[in-house]
Amino acid sequence: MSRFRKITVILAAVFITLALLFSISLVQKKMNSIIIENKLTDTDPIKNAPPIVAFTTVALGSFRGILADLLWLRSITLQDEGNYFEMVQLASWITKLQPRFAGATAYLAWNMAYNISVTCSSFEDRWRWVQRGIELIRDEAIQYNPADPLLYKEIGWIYQHKVGNIMDDANLYYKNQMAISLMKAFGGPEPDWKKLAAAPGNEKDFLEKFPPEDLFWKALKGSGFNTVAKLEEIFRKEGQLPEAFTKILNNSAKAELISDYFRASWLRSVFKLDPSLIYRINQKYGKLDWRLPEAHAIYWAELGLEKCPKNADISLERMISQSLKDAFMSGKLLMVDKNNFQSIITVPNMELADAVKRTYEEAYEKNKSNSFKSALENFMKDAIVIFYNFGNYSKAQEYLGDLRKEYPGHHLYRLPLDNFVLREWSEDVQSSTPKQANDIISGLIFRSCYYLAYGDATAALAHEKLARLVYNRYQKDQSASLKRTGLAPFNQLKDKVTQACLKNFPPALAELLKAQLKIEQTKTPAPADEKNSKAETVQ
Questions:
Q1: Which distant-in-sequence residues (6+ apart) come within 8 Å of 299 by Cβ?
Q2: CA-to-CA distance for 177 and 341, rounded, in angstroms?
Q3: Quick check: helix, strand or coil at residue 536?
Q4: pTM score of the predicted model
Q5: I need a surface site. Which of 89, 131, 204, 324 has the fewest CB within 10 A?
C-alpha cells in the first residue's frame, strides 16, 4: 500500500471515529435528559428515608432488583396458596428495596386493600387489610416519593372508593371504624382546626413554651409521668390529659395548649394529617366532616397537587370534584354505631354546594374535558332536589335558573321548580343509591320538622308518611343486599334528623319545634325499634 493511501485510510478512520463520537454524544445527551425527566435512576438521595432504606440503596446496588424479584415471586406464591401472613412484611421490604418504584407500591397497596381483604369473611379482618394498604402508601411510599402523583391518587382512591363507596359488604364497618378512631384523636366530633394548625409543630417548639420554672414540669413529675413522651402516651390511650396531671397544673389555658399540641402531633404521626392543610382546605371549600372518607380523599388529592405542581395528574382534580360532590350529598355525620358497626347516618353538607360547582367549572376551564361539564350538570340537578328537600327553595330556584341559562333549549329545565323536583324524585327512588335514598328521606323528615315547628301538623304528618313510603320502597327494592346497601332503621333516621333540626334551626324556631315535639310525644308512644336502638349519636 502506498504512503498516500495509508494516510487517506487513517484520515478517513479518524473522521469516521469523530463523526461516531459526535453522534453518540448527541444521543447520550438526549438519553440523559429522558433519564432525568422520568427519574429512571436512583442517584438522587432519598429524603426522610429510614436507615434500612439508605443502607439497601447504597450497599446492595444493582442487586436490589434481583432480591426484589425474589420477594415478588414469594409474594405471588403465598397469595396463590391463600397464605397472607407474610404479605405485609414482603410488601414493606419490596418498597424499601425499590423506593422509587411507585407503581409497584401502588399495586401492592391496592392488592391488600381490594384483593386480599375480600377473601376474609370477618369484617374486622377486611378492615385490617384495607388499613395495611393505606399505611403502605401513606407511611412509607409517600415518604420516599413525595413528588409522585400516582401515590396520592392511589391512597385517595382507597378512601373514596373502597371506604366511601358501597361496593364492599363491609363498607359500613369501615366507615364506623374510621370515624371512631378519628374522633378519639379529635377529642370529639371535630377539633378546632385553626387552633391545631397554630399548635407547635415539633417537640422542641413545644418545650420552649415551658421554661424550667414553669408549673408544667412540677405537674409532670408530681403526677408520676416524669417525661413528656409518657404523658403523650397516656393522652393517646385515654384521649385526654389525665386528671392527676391537670389537677396539679390547675391552668385551663396551659392544659388546652398541651392538648392541642398532643392532638396535632397525634394526627401528624399516626394519620399523617397536617392540621394546617386541613384548615386551608376548609377555608377553600367549606367545613368538611373529617370523620368521613370523602374528606380524606380530598386531602390526599390536594396534597398531591401541592407536592407535584409540574407533574399534576388530572385524576387528582377529578377526585377532588367527585369527593366534594359526595361530601355535599352526604358529608355530615349524625350517628355512628359504636356497638355493632352496622349502620351510619349522614345528611347533606349543603354549605359545600357552591364550592362543588366552582370546582367543576374551574376543572372544565383548565382541562376542557366534557366529563367535567356533564358532571357539573348532573351535580346541579341533584343539588336542586336536595335544596328543595331541605326547604332551601331560593337556592334550588337559583340552580335551576343557572341550568336554564346554560341549556336554554332543554325542555326539562323549563319546568316549574315543583314539577322538576317531582320528576327527579320519581327517577331517584327507582334507581337510588343508599346516599340518594338517605338524602331524600332525610329531606322529607326535615320538611316535616319545619312544618311541625310552624304548627302545621297535617303537612308535617304528610311529609313523614312520604318519608316512610320512600324508605319502605327502597328497603324492599334492596332486600337481596340489605347488609351492604340497607339503611338504618327509620326511627333512628327520624330521631337524628330531628336532633339536627333542633341544633341548626334558629333559636326561636327550635323552641317552637321542641314544644310541638312534646305535644306529639303525648299523643304517640315511642316505637319499639327506637327504644331498643343500640346506636350512639356523635353530635
A1: 156, 273, 277, 278, 281
A2: 7
A3: strand
A4: 0.79
A5: 204
Give the contacts of 137 (CB within 8 A, at least 6 positions apart): 105, 106, 109, 151, 154, 155
Radius of gyration of the chain from its Cα atoms, rounded to whole angstroms: 29
Specify whether the CB–CB gap between 264 and 234 falls below 8 A. Answer: no
CA pair distance 351, 359, nearest whole angstrom: 14
Tell me which amino acid residue 77 is. Answer: T
- Has residue 528 been placed in a domain? yes
Reduced to 3 states, what is the DSSP secondary structure of residue 54?
helix
- Listed in sequence order, the residues at least 6 apart from 534 whose beta carbon sits closer than 8 Å to its beta carbon are 337, 339, 340
Based on the number of CB atoms within 10 Å of its own CB, is 378 exposed (0-12), middle (13-18) or buried (19 or more)? exposed
Per-residue pLDDT tens over the stretch 387-412: 887 878 899 999 999 999 999 989 99
Same domain for 402 and 516, yes or no, is yes
Q: Are residues 342 and 489 both part of a single domain?
A: yes
Half-sphere CA count of 376, side-chain side, radius 13 A: 23
Residue 332 pairs in a beta bridge with: 347
**In this structure, are 410 and 526 located in the same domain?**
yes
Residue 236, classified by CB atoms within 10 Å of its CB into exposed (0-12), middle (13-18) or buried (19+), is middle
Is residue 425 a contact partner of residue 366, using CB atoms and an 8 Å limit?
Answer: no
Domain count, the chain: 3
Q: Which cell is 119 given? A: 377473601
Q: Render pLDDT for 300-313 as a digit per residue (tens, 0 to 9).
A: 999 999 998 877 77
How far apart, in whole angstroms, are the C-alpha atoms of residue 148 and residue 102? Answer: 7
**Does 120 map to a domain?**
no
Domain encompassing residue 214: 191-277
